[in-house]
Amino acid sequence: MFITSKMAAPVTYTFYTKGANNINLITDEITVNGGADVINKKTLDTPQGVVTELTDEQIEKLKSHPLFQMHIANGALAIHSVEKEAKKIEKELEKDKSSQITPEDYEKGEVKKEIVRKARKPRTK
């Protein structure tokens, strides 16, 4: 399963249990990638947001987290039950016209190569 995030920064959802003397103890942490609309080659950015792959158990646990519920309700996160791998999804998506030009666009011939101006000859007296 995948979660897409439209948030600019990653969010770590922390789960606690009560310990001795009523002290909160961290039992688990699940991080959802952020970085939507931020240039970063380490994230899979789609028109729906940045993709994070999580297990079914992690998704079920997140559904009980109050902050996660708020992010879902506000539209900042979406859960996708997809059988395909993230890289296959990325290849199937059409490129948005407003997205940045990449070196691959030049290789595919989708962008005209920039015109290189010839250097002027120095003037002679």
Describe the structure.
This protein has 125 residues and is α+β, with helices and mostly antiparallel strands. The chain has one domain. The chain has 4 helices and 6 strands. The chain has helices spanning 56-62, 66-73, 86-92, 103-108; strands spanning 2-5, 11-18, 24-32, 45-46, 49-53, 77-80. The chain has a 4-stranded antiparallel β-sheet. Strands 2-3 form a two-stranded antiparallel sheet. The longest helix has 8 residues, at 66-73. The termini are far apart. The mean pLDDT is 78.
Measure the end-to-end span.
73 Å
**What's the gyration radius in Å?**
22 Å
Uncertain ranges: none
Work out the helix count: 4
Strand content: 25-35%
What's the structural domain tally?
1
Question: Structural class of the secondary structure composition?
Answer: alpha+beta
SSE topology string: EEEEEHHEHH
- Strands of the widest sheet, in order across it, are 4-5-1-6
What's the total number of strands? 6
Helix content estimate: 10-25%
For this entry, what is the oligomeric state of its chains?
Answer: single chain
- Mean pLDDT across every amino acid position: 78
Give the CA-based shape: elongated
